[in-house]
Design brief:
Elements lengths: L7 E5 L3 H14 L4 E5 L2 H11 L3 E6 L6 E2 L5 E2 L4 H9 L7 E4 L3 H13 L4 E4 L6 H18 L15
Parallel strand pairs: 1-2, 1-3, 3-6, 6-7
Antiparallel strand pairs: 4-5
Helix pairs in contact: 2-3, 3-4
């Protein structure tokens, strides 16, 4: 199977309801980009290792639920900190949004990314899912717009009424 060469948004998020809400907002406002979701740190890191140059923005949760691996076993999904540590070993190529209710872990992720020169924003989820359209998406869009270079315009980031 051939991988897409389109620009993409990478999201480490294991919660299905959050993924749906994020997809609805992204498909409505930024349909021209692929959105690649990951439920484990290892899968996300593998993808970033191969396609980091095609990534427009990264959103990271910290706490990831174990994944059923059959016969009653659970697979450790890792944490967003593992992805942040991987990114800190790479040259910055896009903004990162850290979205987790785990305050100390979120701050640690922000610090390791900032120390490595990555543009990073922190979003603390609240309520049910309203934070995604009220805070997460505007923060993501603003960070992408600020990062965009004149020679590589990113369309759809300043749509009226967005």
């Amino acid at each position: 199977m051939m991988e897409s060469t389109r620009l993409c948004l990478v999201i480490l998020e294991d919660n299905a309801d959050r993924r749906i809400a994020m997809s609805e907002r992204l498909n409505d406002r930024l349909p021209q980009y692929d959105v690649c979701y990951f439920a484990t740190a290892a899968e996300c890191i593998d993808f970033l290792h191969r396609r980091l140059s095609q990534v427009l923005a990264i959103a990271l949760d910290h706490d990831l639920d174990p994944i059923p691996a059959g016969t009653g076993r659970l697979l450790d999904a890792g944490t967003g900190r593992e992805v942040a540590d991987f990114l800190a070993s790479q040259a910055p190529v896009c903004p990162v949004i850290v979205h987790t209710t785990n305050l100390p872990a979120g701050e640690g992720m922000v610090e390791v990314l900032k120390d490595a020169g990555w543009p990073v924003e922190r979003v603390i989820p609240y309520g049910d899912l309203e934070w995604i359209s009220q805070l997460w998406f505007p923060t993501l869009r603003s960070a992408m717009s600020a990062w965009t270079r004149a020679e590589e315009p990113v369309l759809g980031l300043s749509a009226p009424g967005a």
